[in-house]
Specification:
The chain is α/β, with parallel strands linked by helices and 525 residues long. It contains eleven helices and 22 strands.
C-alpha cells in the first residue's frame, strides 16, 4: 500500500509539472506570436500627430461636429478608438517630448521651446526613435519638430546686434538672417535623437522660415521677417520675428510636408527594414491657412477647413501605405499634442461648433479640454476592426507598448512613465485597467490628476486664461469659491460642478495620489 501511495503521488507530481510546462510553453508561444522574430516581421509604425486639434473636432467623437473628417473616421473604424486618451501637456513642446521619451514632461520642464531655442533633451536622453532605430527600423520625422536645435552653433559670434519687435505686450529680440552661417549643419535636432531623416520647417510660426532637410536648410534665409503680408483666414498669424526666405509662403507648408511624407512611404516599397514615420502636422495650429481647394468644405469656418485639409493629408499618407501593400502590418496612431487654441470660443458662437466637446477648457488649460485628445490605433494584422476602449491611456504609454510589440528591451536604469497597453490593443485585456492615474500639467505648480472617473485640480481653476464670461451660462458651469477643484467625470463629463467642498476625504485621497506620482518615478528598468 505504501508503494502504491508513493506511486500515486509521483504520478500526480509528474502530471503537475507536465501541465505547468505545457502552460508555460503555451504562454511563451503566445508571446512569440506577438513579438516578431525577424526584422522583416516587425510592423511599420506611423504616428500622425495633429497640432492644436480638439477631441470634438472629429465627427466620430462628436456627432455635432461641423467638420467632415472621412479619412480619420475610416481609420477609427478600421482600428481601435480610445475615448479617454491624453497628451502629457496642454501645449506643444512638452507633449512632443513626453510622446517621444515615454516620460511625463513635468519631471524635467514645463514650457515650450521659444523661437530659435535650444533643445529640451538632456544628454543621452533615450527616445522612441532611438529604440526603433536600434532595433532595425528606418526612422523619419516630417513636419513640426518644436523640441529645439543648437542654433548658436551656426551663429557668427561676431554678430552681436539684435533687433526687437513689440508683440503681445513684450519685446521679442531676434538676430538678422545674416547673423548665421547657413552652410553649416544645425546640431541637436532630430538626427541627434534617433531619427535617420528629417524634413520640415521646424515650427510653422517660428523662425527660421525655411525648410530644413536633415541638418541643413534647403535654401538660405536672407531676410528677417517681422510680420507676414496680408491676413490669415482666421485668428492671427502668431508669427515670431526672425530669419526667413525672401519669398516664404506659409500656405505651401502643409502641402509640401504631405508630399514629402507620401514620397517617403513610396520609397519604402522594396525596403527590407521596417520604418517609423513620425508625421507631425503643423495644422490646424495657427496660422489658420487652409489652401484654396479646401475652403468651404466644413461648416466651421477656416479652422474647420484646415482640419478638413489635415484629414485629407492623413488620407494621402494612408493611401500611399495602401499603394505599397504595407497597410496590413503597419501600426498607425493618430492623436494630437493638445486641445484647440482660444479661437475655439468664437467658433462656438459663430458656427455652433465646439472643438473640445464634450469637455471644458482649451489649449493650455488642465481641464480635460486642454489634453483629452483624439487617440486612434490601427493595426489590421492584430487589432480588431471597430474596437472602442474606455481605458485611460496617455501618449507616454506608446514607448513601452511599442517596445513590447517589436521585442525591444529598454535600457537598464531608464526612468519612464510608460505603461504597456499591448494586451488592450490586441483585445486580450479589455476590462483590467492598465493605468490607474495620469497627471497633466501645462505650467509650473498647476496639476490635474485623473484617477478613474475623478479629476482633481490642485488650483482654484483649471484655466490658464480666463474663459469668456458667456461660457458660464452657455455650458451651465457653477460658480465655486473653493481653492481646489474636484469633478466626477462619470456624471459630469463637462466639469460643471466642483465637488471639492462636499468631498474633503476624496480631496485628501487625490492629493495623496498626486504627490505619490510626482515624487516617484513610475518605472525604472
Amino acid at each position: 500500500m505504501k508503494f502504491n501511495t508513493h506511486l500515486q503521488i509521483s504520478i500526480v507530481v509528474v502530471i503537475f509539472f507536465v501541465v505547468l510546462a505545457c502552460t508555460s510553453r503555451s504562454a511563451n508561444n503566445s508571446n512569440q506570436e506577438l513579438l516578431p522574430v525577424t526584422v522583416e516581421e516587425k510592423p511599420n509604425i506611423i504616428i500622425l500627430y495633429a497640432d492644436d486639434m480638439g477631441y470634438g473636432d472629429l465627427n466620430i467623437e462628436n456627432p455635432n461636429s461641423k467638420i467632415p473628417t472621412p479619412n480619420l473616421e475610416k481609420l477609427s473604424k478600421e482600428g481601435m478608438r480610445f475615448t479617454d486618451g491624453h497628451s502629457s501637456s496642454g501645449i506643444c513642446t512638452p507633449s512632443r517630448y513626453a510622446l517621444l521619451t515615454g516620460r511625463y514632461h513635468w519631471r524635467d520642464f514645463h514650457g515650450i521651446v521659444n523661437a530659435m531655442g535650444e533643445s529640451v533633451f538632456k544628454d543621452n536622453q533615450y527616445t522612441m526613435a532611438q529604440m526603433l532605430n536600434e532595433n532595425g527600423y528606418q526612422t523619419a520625422c516630417i513636419g513640426k519638430w518644436h523640441l529645439g536645435w543648437d542654433w548658436e552653433a551656426i551663429r557668427n559670434k561676431s554678430w552681436t546686434q539684435q533687433d526687437s519687435l513689440l508683440l503681445w505686450g513684450r519685446y521679442l529680440r531676434y538676430y538678422d538672417a545674416l547673423a548665421y552661417d547657413w552652410t553649416k549643419a544645425i546640431p541637436d535636432g532630430p538626427l541627434d535623437h534617433g531619427f535617420d531623416y528629417y524634413f520640415g520647417d521646424g515650427v510653422i510660426n517660428f523662425p527660421p522660415y525655411a525648410f530644413i532637410e536633415n541638418e541643413r536648410v534647403t535654401e538660405t534665409p536672407t531676410v528677417a521677417m517681422r510680420s507676414p503680408k496680408g491676413e490669415p483666414l482666421e485668428g492671427s498669424w502668431e508669427v515670431r520675428p526672425g530669419p526667413a526666405l525672401q519669398d516664404w509662403d506659409f500656405f505651401n507648408v502643409l502641402p509640401t510636408l504631405t508630399k514629402k511624407a507620401v514620397a517617403y512611404i513610396e520609397k519604402r516599397k522594396k525596403a527590407k527594414a521596417p520604418f517609423f514615420l513620425y508625421m507631425a502636422f503643423p495644422s490646424p495650429h495657427a496660422p489658420i491657412i487652409p489652401n484654396e481647394e479646401f475652403r468651404g468644405k466644413s461648416e466651421a469656418g477656416a479652422y474647420g477647413d484646415f482640419v478638413y485639409q489635415t484629414d485629407w493629408s492623413s488620407g494621402q499618407i494612408l493611401n500611399a501605405l495602401d499603394a505599397i501593400g504595407a497597410t496590413e502590418n503597419t501600426i498607425v496612431i493618430f492623436t494630437a499634442d493638445n486641445g484647440p487654441e482660444r479661437y475655439a470660443y468664437d467658433r462656438i458662437l459663430k458656427y455652433d461648433h465646439h472643438s473640445s466637446a464634450p469637455f471644458r477648457g482649451l489649449k493650455r488649460d488642465v481641464y480635460e479640454g486642454g489634453h483629452h485628445v483624439p487617440f486612434v490605433v490601427r493595426w489590421p494584422k492584430k487589432i480588431k476592426r471597430g474596437s472602442v476602449s474606455d481605458q485611460l491611456i496617455s501618449q507616454v504609454d506608446l514607448l513601452k507598448t511599442l517596445s513590447n510589440i517589436i521585442g525591444a528591451e529598454l535600457p537598464k536604469g531608464l526612468a519612464h512613465d510608460s505603461h504597456d497597453f499591448t494586451a488592450v490593443w490586441l483585445g486580450e485585456n479589455a476590462d483590467n485597467k492598465i493605468r490607474k492615474t495620469t497627471v497633466q500639467n501645462t505650467f509650473k505648480d498647476k496639476y490635474a490628476l485623473r484617477a478613474g472617473d475623478w479629476l482633481y485640480i490642485n488650483s482654484k481653476s483649471g484655466y490658464h486664461s480666463t474663459a469668456p464670461e458667456w461660457t458660464w451660462d452657455h455650458f451651465g458651469y457653477k460658480q465655486s469659491k473653493d481653492s481646489l477643484e474636484l469633478f466626477n467625470l462619470k456624471t459630469d463629463i463637462s466639469q460643471k460642478e466642483n465637488l471639492a467642498q462636499l468631498m474633503p476625504e476624496k480631496i485628501r485621497d487625490m492629493q495623496s495620489q498626486l504627490e505619490h506620482v510626482r515624487q516617484r518615478e513610475s518605472f525604472i528598468e
